[in-house]
Each structure stands twice: as structure tokens, then as C-alpha cells.
Amino acid sequence: MSENKIPYDNLDPHFILNAIESLNYSCSGNLTALNSFENRVYQVGIEESAPVIAKFYRPGRWSDAAILEEHQFALSLQENDIPVIAPLCLPNGKTLHYYDNHRFALFPREGGKPLELDNLEHLEWMGRLLGRLHAKGACGTFLHRPTFNVNTFGYEPYHFLLENNFIPPEIKHNYCYAIDNALEKVEAYFQMAGALSIIRLHGDCHAGNVLWRKDGPILVDFDDCLMGPAVCDLWMLLSGSPEEVKIQKNRILDGYDEFYDFNRSEWKLVEALRTLRMIHYTGWLAKRWDDPAFPLSFPWFNTPRYWQEQLQHLNEQVHLLTEGLQPD
After folding, report:
1. With 0-12 CB in 10 A as exposed, 13-18 as middle and 19+ as buried, what is 224?
2. Gap between the Cα atoms of 319 and 211, Å rounded
3. Who is most buried in 86, 139, 286, 316, counting CB within 10 A?
4. With contact defined as beta carbons under 8 Å apart, do 72 and 65 qualify?
5. Is the pLDDT of residue 319 over 80?
6. What radius of gyration do the chain's Cα atoms show?
């Protein structure tokens, strides 16, 4: 099955409960869909026990080996007392399960409050958590998962947009000029940053993937874990004015440096990373546009206004990237 072709058309409540019960769970019948688009995620009630979270993986996206690397990484972090949500391991030792051509995993249900990005104490605590995670991440490598670079997060989604005719003809020339210019400057930023240590990362470390509890933060959703420089897991914790960002960086690194040494030159990549995330996100929406859930949930995508706004944002990023390349 192509990953774009109605990947979850038979994933109804009856199917989901049967899949969970195939693992010798007794479902109570309570089923709640959770906010997820890449995969399908549900809270499932279990008789005389706590609910579990079931994640059904998007067909065609990851190989079994890549999913198992995700699971093994999260479990290794958990075994080292690093607070993350790892998949449940059944008595047979398995974490990845199969039911009628679907692959799924079960996770414990955990509660918590949102991470407060304007709370410096929270940011320092996040620094400690990510320092510990990266220290462990640096001790191994992914063999089946992607590496963050200008190609995988920039040129590949850009070429997908071109090859599938998503960019409207009336702005195609200007859009391509802007994105070519932006990616050329992003490459210059990586050259400016110098040699980078490439380690295993969470890969999507934003506030929505952090639960805050009395005993500190806990990271969830390792679906996008990959190889890359450490800053990829840090930059989305920054917000506000340049002065506020400077203070936030210092507090994050106060915690981070207790467990792992951060290469300060990686901070130079922040605007380049922001640009790549913008391009990658547009490509992600385009790749998923045949999934019926996406037009319903993102009705503003692929409209003339959307592309005009993207062109404006790209030009703004080009300006910021150009300023950053000027000598001090």
C-alpha cells in the first residue's frame, strides 16, 4: 500500500478493540481517539486495570527495524532512569505487534501539565533531562532511522512539492527562487558551525511532547527519533525577544552541561533549523494530503493564501539568514 492511500480506512473501534484483545487484554469498551495525525493513537480502557495508549503506525512510513530502534532507544533511556514514555513490553518480550496488516504498540497512560516555556526553572530542568538523554544517545547509533541534514529536511520535501505540482504556477518562480536561496544559506550555516557531533536524538522536542509533573518533565513520543546534532532537541524550547532567548539558552545549558558537553557553535544553526522545519512541515502536509484526515484538519493548506504566506515567510527567513551570515 502506498503511504498516501487511505492508510486507516479499516481502523474502526471494533478493529481496534480486537487488536488489543489479541494480546490477551480484556478491553472495557472505553475508547478515546487522541490528537495524532501521523499515526492513530487511542486511549483504551482495560478491565480492572489502568487504560493503555495504543499507537497504530502509519503504513509504509517506517520499516519494522526502524520502529524497533525507536522502542529500544526509549526503553534504554527508561532503564537508565531517564524520564521518558517507553512502549510496554509484553511477557513474550515484544513491543511491536501485528493485527490484520496493521502494526501497533502499547504505552502506559501518563498524566501531567504542559511545559511552561517562560519558566526558567522548567527550562533548566529540561536542560538536565536532555543532557542525560544525549549522553546516552551518544553511546550508540541508529542504523535504520534517518539523519537530520539539509537534504532530508530541506531538499527532499522541496523536491516532493515540485514533482507533485503542489506549488501554484502563479508563484512557482518566486517560491522556488526563495527556497533555493534559503537552502543555499542554510548550507552556509552548517559550514559556519563547523564539525558537529551526530548523536541519537528525540527528534521532535517541543512543548507538546513534554509532560510536567511534580517530579519534573517526562518526554513522550519518540516517533521522530533520528540522528543529528544536539541543538535539534534544544532550539524549540526557545521563545521571545533576543534578550529573553539569551537568558533561556543560559538556563538550559546550566542544566544540560551537568550531564553532557554542548558545542556552543551549534546555537548558530537556530535560524537554519527554523527554516528547515518550515520546509519540512509543508512537505509533510503535502505527502499526507491523500489521507482524508488531513484536508479536514488542515483546510487552510494548499490554498492560494497559504502559498502566498509561505512565500512571505521564506523571504523573511532569507533576510534573517543573510543577516546572520554577515561578519560581526
Report:
1. middle
2. 35
3. 86
4. no
5. yes
6. 21
Q: Which amino acid is at 147?
A: T
Residue corresponding to grid cell 486495570: 49
Residue 219: φ, ψ to 5°: -90, 140
Predicted confidence (pLDDT) at residue 12 exceeds the cutoff of 60: yes
CB 202 within 8 A of CB 225: yes
Cβ contacts of 96-102, under 8 Å, gap ≥ 24: 96/64, 96/67, 96/68, 96/71, 97/19, 97/22, 97/23, 99/15, 99/18, 99/19, 99/22, 100/10, 100/15, 100/19, 101/59, 102/11, 102/15, 102/19, 102/56, 102/57, 102/59
What is the rounded distance in angstroms from the CA atom of residue 294 to the CA atom of residue 76? 34
The full set of domains in the chain, from first to last, is: 13-110 (3.30.200.20), 120-324 (1.10.510.10)
Dig out the grid coordinates for 181 from the structure: 536561496
Cell numbers for 189, please give them. Answer: 550555516
- Please give the pLDDT value at position 2: 41
Which amino acid appears at position 87 of this protein? P
Residues marked active site are found at 204, 221
Report the predicted TM-score, pTM, of the whole model to 2 decimal places. Answer: 0.94
Identity of the amino acid at 262:
F
Q: Are 78 and 154 in contact (CB under 8 A)?
A: no
Q: What is the mean pLDDT of the chain?
A: 95
Closest CA to 106 of 45, 192, 167: 45
Residue 247 has pLDDT above 50, yes or no: yes
Nearest CA to 252 out of 122, 115, 138 is that of 122
pLDDT of residue 5: 58
Output the nine-digit C-alpha cell for 136.
Answer: 546516552
Strands 216-219 and 49-56: unpaired
